[in-house]
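Q: What does the assembled structure look like for these inputs?
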Amino acid sequence: MAKKIGKYTLRMNNPPSVIAGAAIGSKKEGEGPLSAYFDIINPDSSFGEKTWEKAESRLQKDTINKMLEKAGIASVEVDAVFGGDLLNQCVGTTFGMREIGIPLFGLFSACATFAEAMALAALLVDADTLAQAAIIASSHFCSAERQFRFPLEYGGQRPPSSQWTATAAGAALIGTHVQPPYIKHVTIGIIEDLGVTDANNMGAAMAPSAAATLTHFFSDTGTNADNYDLILSGDLGAVGSELLYQLMERGGYDIRKKHADCGLMIFDRDRQDVHAGASGAGCAAAVFCAYILPSMREGKLKNLLFIPTGALLSPTTVQQGESIPCICHLIHLADSPEPAGV
Amino acid sequence: MAKKIGKYTLRMNNPPSVIAGAAIGSKKEGEGPLSAYFDIINPDSSFGEKTWEKAESRLQKDTINKMLEKAGIASVEVDAVFGGDLLNQCVGTTFGMREIGIPLFGLFSACATFAEAMALAALLVDADTLAQAAIIASSHFCSAERQFRFPLEYGGQRPPSSQWTATAAGAALIGTHVQPPYIKHVTIGIIEDLGVTDANNMGAAMAPSAAATLTHFFSDTGTNADNYDLILSGDLGAVGSELLYQLMERGGYDIRKKHADCGLMIFDRDRQDVHAGASGAGCAAAVFCAYILPSMREGKLKNLLFIPTGALLSPTTVQQGESIPCICHLIHLADSPEPAGV
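A:
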């Protein structure tokens, strides 16, 4: 079983493997740089459903089924599913998983939900409690805009710091190690809130949580950015990424040359009108499953820190003048299950 | 570590203990039959805050701090907190845990959240991955009414099948076994949806999920109601409890004499105007921490099945005509960590 090392990090004893993954996106994701890596690009963002919320549930259902198909297993062979999304009462997941028949652990860490799911699945597979577990997270531009900002019909203006919620889902299967990538460490986040109140500047709100969790991990493992191929944040976007560099520099860590952000990968900011980048629980999930997982499988990436961040606000807390508590969970994945080389 | 027995149930190898618990309620809970068992009854349901959502966050913060005080430990000694609530984006928990400084696993299983938290904490303590973990869940009548039904000022009529959301929170500490109760099995729920669409009749919607999970557990362990002192559902209320009996009878199980419901315990339906009983994620959490935990500690209850249910709907899904998917997680607690006597 995993054991605590240092103050915040859990090291796997028998690192579980990400056995399979699948990602589905919609029209805008299909026009982006990662288009060819998605399993399915469905240009109809309603996914054949009558409402945006039903569309997101359908997206989750289709994505987990695609993942199970790729893994070559039936849903009854999966011990549990860990999943969540951004919608009120996580209905993207609860309705999306309604017919799947797998025991469900519902999660909420906003856009860090996929990492929370991966951490819990890995810990319980490493403990030999679960043989294999599915993980899933999604977001949908239209359901998120209506819920968090304005209905699309309103035509609200978006400031330059705002990010574009990806219409995407990623699902993966975590099981006993058979092939790379292996999940070697997880660091569970503590809520960070430096007082940012602008709900159109999530990157700035979330950067301190990424810095805190990354610093906890570096400190617990005695490593730094030089030890890794890539430090992949979830959706800090252009504004949040720059703030993360500055916060890490204050602590003596230079991560600029090793950092990328899923929110800056899924869309092309020069060609696509997304302002500061992408966001949404489905962004990190889909980029991981579509692009990162195959890259690790093929050996192009060998040692990765995956650090999705979540802004734990609601429209109500924003209206009540509250600042934005944020959280970041870290997953360390490597090409070998061996303890050497951290 | 816990191991799967049968199809759905996980049996602990080294059953973790519920080391400490605390519960806080408000005015109506203070007028109910369990009043004397609460650690704190704060008759001011605003808990000194300016909005109902902030009040619920404050309730969570006060409850976890009271629990840590009773356990005699500092928050830094707790490896993780597993928590959730009913509010959009779980802000009762994210704002309530903002200053606690413990790694947070955010959860959502509606009114079954406390059981999901207890299951995950127990599985990871049993695996020796976490030394001790806190769990918490809450609900607040005023924040729930505004979010799920109508603002209080509207004065909406409540049908007889409706339940009254408890303004309450329960927090507990799960750790290596030292004293009863011990967590011996958990059965994680699969979503059940028999097509109930009436959001004012949650008991009817949730009863099938309780029946499914309880049947899975009985089948996996080869036991029945006779083996237990008490089968305690979360908040089926009067309507849902009767439906649960009927559904279990169809499967050949008679649970009538062994069953109680937290939603029928926290208020007195004859004296208090709560219609079909109480509900809310805080109902099962508070009844467990205030009343059940001490009863088990004192040996009055020896063998308990705790089966909170959650209705995984949102106001949006109701408006869109969707039925109500529900889930029930089961926790088996006993006075001895020994495997005998299931």
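Chain B touches chain A through 59 residues (CB under 8 Å).
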